[in-house]
Amino acid sequence: MLPDFYQLVRLQEVSSTSDEAKALAQDCAGEGTIVVADRQLGGRGRHGREWHSPFGNLYLSLILRPGCSASTASQLSFVSALSVGGALSVIIPSVQKVRYKWPNDVLLRGRKLSGILLESNLHDDGMVDWLVVGVGVNVQSHPSDSQVKWPATSLHAEGFKSITAHTMLREFCTAFHRRYMFWRENGFAQLREEWLASNIGLGERVEVSFPMGVVTGILSDVAMDGSIALLDDKGRYHKISSGTLRLLERLDG
Ligand code: BTN
Prior knowledge:
By secondary structure, this protein is α+β, with helices and mostly antiparallel strands. The protein has two domains: 7-199, Bira Bifunctional Protein, Domain 2 (BirA Bifunctional Protein, domain 2, 2-Layer Sandwich); 202-247, SH3 type barrels (Roll), CATH 2.30.30.100. Helix content is 25%, strand content 33%. The protein has five helices and 13 strands. The strands form two sheets. Strands 1-2-3-7-6-5-4-8 form an eight-stranded mixed beta sheet, with helices on both faces. The structure holds biotin. Biotin binds at residues 16-18, 40, 43-46, 49, 51, 59-61, 105, 115-117, 134-136.
């Protein structure tokens, strides 16, 4: 059912598929090992946030061993987001308004449908030993607006009620495998263009909160290493590698 690249580890209930995958990676599991669970009791999002994880949605964590530096590996969150978008366009050819929000959210009609969490272990020389790409897709349900920073949605809430987590898994795996092989051979430039073509925020006034504080300004670039350049009101550029982005003038998706 999945491309040969994958070795599927299917579980019913776990704390977090990413915790399971990290333990397997530490135990020398190979690239392509993918942990999928029906539900998570301790699903984690970025910055330690909770990830809504009841039965019916897709929760997967994929082990990769890309043999590159950590900054190059950060491109894989964009590759993963594009793969969620690619899977959606196969399952729902009529789907419109899939957008990407830095660093790695997938939005449908302006609401968050999917989130991606990258976790890695580095060798002493800074090269990636393993990378776990955790992907959550809201298929049947999503958290309410009061529970999250950015409003969420699910495929069922958007009217695509026949889609299951199983279908989403199969199409994501196919889409990701194709893009990952392309990335390994050709690098990030073309994939970055694809991501930029459907992003929200570029050229807009945004606020980015990150561990050192908050910066407001115009989102002027998403660089090859996945960091953003923000031009603040005093004309200074800020390079930010990790943070949470909020549009100050909301677009309608
Ligand atoms: C985010 O948007 O904050 C990232 C969410 C990542 C959620 C997925 S669900 C599968 C994997 N297991 C986890 O505990 N988290 C990731």
